[in-house]
Amino acid sequence: MQNSQKPGAKSYLITKTLDPENQETPIQFIHEDFVTEKLFYRRNHFSYPNFVSSFYWFHVDGSVHYPRMFSLQEIQALPSKTVKTVLECAGNKRGFFKPKVFGEQWQKGAISQGIWKGVPLSTLFRYTGVMETAREVVFEGYDFGELADSNQITYFSRSLPIEKALHPDTIIAYEYNGKPLPFKHGFPLRLIVPEWHAMASVKWIKKITVIDHEFKGPFQAVDYVYYPKKDSDEGKFPVTTMKINSTIQQPLDRQILNTGFHTISGIAWTGKGVVTKIEVSVDGGVTWNHANLVPQPERYAWVRWEYKWEVLEKGEYSILSRAVDSEGQEQPKEAMWNRKGYGFNAIDIINLKVE
Ligand SMILES: Nc1nc2c(c(=O)[nH]1)N[C@H]1C(S)=C(S)[C@@H](COP(=O)(O)O)O[C@H]1N2
Ligand SMILES: [Mo]
Q1: How far is the CA of 199 from the centre of ligand 2 (A)?
Q2: What is the dihedral of CA 146, 149, 151, 155, to 10 degrees?
Q3: Does 23 sit in the ligand 1 pocket, CB within 6 Å?
Q4: Is 19 among the domain residues?
Q5: Boundary residue ending a domain (191, 223, 255)
Q6: Do residue 260 and residue 336 come from a single domain?
Q7: What's the pTM value of the predicted model, to 2 decimals?
Q8: Interatomic CA distance for residues 51 and 184, integer angstroms
Q9: What is the CATH number of the domain that holds 302?
């Protein structure tokens, strides 16, 4: 199995680190709903795992009536479900927080989307049963390493509340855009959790454990937690659903344009509900105009939008985009600052010069 990029292989990503591999999507080049593997962002906490995929199987145990193993072949033989969804890293846009925070300085490209095919987790639980005492489901990946602040070996693992785990659109995926999952994105099996930030979508599933208490692993109880205060943990709460957000893809920040007609285009997405409105300002937020949505918004997916702008006067311009969703959430002027830099969703802004 190939588990690292060949030297010299063409990459179109923006590199942050190579081992663990963290690279972002050049989001300005994404003009379709299905991001190809070459352009899909990569976010890893550890080196890529090593295992023999031909003997692949995983355990489901814990608070279930009939603990058992599933092989990849068994999973693929069960009734399948496809989900078109965004995966957005909780740290997407972290680099824009002011004051700055520590952690990967993601710009706007820790987000991608495509079609995932797999089996609802709830289907597996029909085989194992779930005890009444069940509270959460823990997913452990094959990747592991030492955490920065201890020398203990830890596997990447995360939990979901039982209700979210049993949601019919929470799936164990084995295909992406009609092909087997790429290794770097979790082959042979990864969890896909629509609406939630992508840390929940555990790759390279090794085991699934139903528990009757709260999971306190480091990627659950220490990381992926909003800490609103710089110097204390007061007011902390877990990162779960994505927030209403939008990104201007074209033109580029600091681009120089001629007078005349230009198309301002981008994407907008949310966790709960659907995006209902995107507005664009070409005068630094004084006046706002409706952007066209292409195509119509769907649950779980991003919507592309555009605004035709005619500019006659030379000068400098601030262009803003602001999205609203069906839950009444609207992008704020300023993102909620938090110590680990999650969930940046302030109104997007670029600056242009017209000559
Ligand atoms: N096993 C495992 N699953 C994981 C991670 C990881 O490091 N190991 N990273 C998570 C995070 S934080 C994100 S944003 C997404 C990234 O998925 P991708 O690399 O397929 O884009 O995977 C999630 N699932
Ligand atoms: Mo992430």
Answers
A1: 5
A2: -30
A3: no
A4: yes
A5: 223
A6: yes
A7: 0.95
A8: 13
A9: 2.60.40.650
